[in-house]
Amino acid sequence: MAQFHRIKGTHDILPQDARKWRYVEGVVQEVMQRYNFSEIRTPIFEETALFARGIGQLTDIVSKEMYTFLDRGEKSLTLKPEGTAPVIRAFIEHNLGEKKPVHKLYYISPMFRQENPQAGRLRQFHQFGAELIGSPAPEADVETIALAVDIYERFGLKQFTLKINSVGDAACRVPYKEQLQAFLRPRLDKLCRSCQERFEKNPLRILDCKEEGCREQTAEAPRITDHLCEACHHHFEAVKTLLNRLEIAFEVDHRLVRGLDYYTRTAFEIISGSLGAQNALGGGGRYDLLAEELGGKPTPSVGFAAGIERLLMVLEKENLLPEFQEGPDVFIATLGEAAKTWAIPAARRLRRQGFKVDYDFMGRSLKAQMKEANRSGARFALIVGDNELQAGEVVLRDLATSEQETVAMDTIDEMLRQRTASQS
């Protein structure tokens, strides 16, 4: 019979890795809550039109990468490739804007894109993200950027850089797009095929192309920050002033336009020196037009998303993951049927007292059980045989030092509590 394997571009998170994921998710949740962001969970699939309208028909995500299928009712559904459009859909659907003017929401969720798998880029990947919905103020942009930076600093990352730019709004982007196209038109045959396809509908994306030839051709391209309307210019200057006030270092990157159509004004990205070509840890920006595009009222918003797989790669490379104690507090080893019968309720009672407890399920010898206790990473072993049962005692052994003592059964809880506290 053929053996099954995981689908290309996915991975199994095994127990020794799951503890790292729990750590990362815990830190993210901790910092999000300090900033008073509340968790939101949206479905893993949505109507395809949500992403086509929200992200943009001409983006690579919509045109090439989405996992789209028909359900039994012939409705087109898509596994979510990003988190912002579903959050805004939920915001509109549940009338959250009627309940208070500003909402601060975060998520941790799997996403799906049919990309070419490589290091830090999978077909099922995981992101954490935040959306600050309802405020047009530059303070909201900076709050979101500071949140992202503080998450990475909380992990101890040192080698990362914040890049920012402004992509203007609908008013100033149209004339800039025409100037950019005029600059690119005589160079069109020297651009890669993808950039040639972007020329008419999405020329700003050409600035973000990583092909060396395209970067050479766009080196002298007009900068959008030189063509911002007065309102966008003042907004961008305020963002930079506030970042300086918070002593958050940044670089203005005139090529930074991000990959989604819904961005307006501020765009930002955080990159790591510990990653290779795929060096973006996360990024985001302002998207004041998205809610209206999805059928809601005009609602200014700003947010970011970040990859968990890439963050874990950096934490591994920079040796920033803590030591994990995953073994039980105590392993009960028994000799004889009476002792085995005693162990089952004893384990349950200790678990209810808050201890992590395990015992043998294979009917092995006492020697084999002690080997298993050591292999499990247990801190202590409780050794019980018929003689101990008759005397109302157990042997408590410290598996790190091999020191042991005989203790009364009715003092086990207190003895374990004292020992585990002294080793914490």
Number of domains: 2
Oligomer: single chain
Reported for the largest beta sheet, the result is: 8 strands, mixed
| CATH architecture label of the largest domain | 2-Layer Sandwich
Q: Ranges with pLDDT <50 over ≥5 residues?
A: none
Radius of gyration: 28 Å
Shape: elongated
What is the name of the CATH topology of the largest domain?
BirA Bifunctional Protein, domain 2
- In spatial order, strands of the major sheet run 1-5-6-11-10-9-7-8
Q: Could you tell me the mean pLDDT? A: 90
The number of helical elements comes to 16
Helix content: 25-40%
Strand percentage lies at 15-25%
* Count of β-strands: 16
The CATH homologous superfamily name of the largest domain equals Bira Bifunctional Protein, Domain 2
Q: What gap, in angstroms, lies between the N and C termini?
A: 49 Å
Structural class: alpha+beta
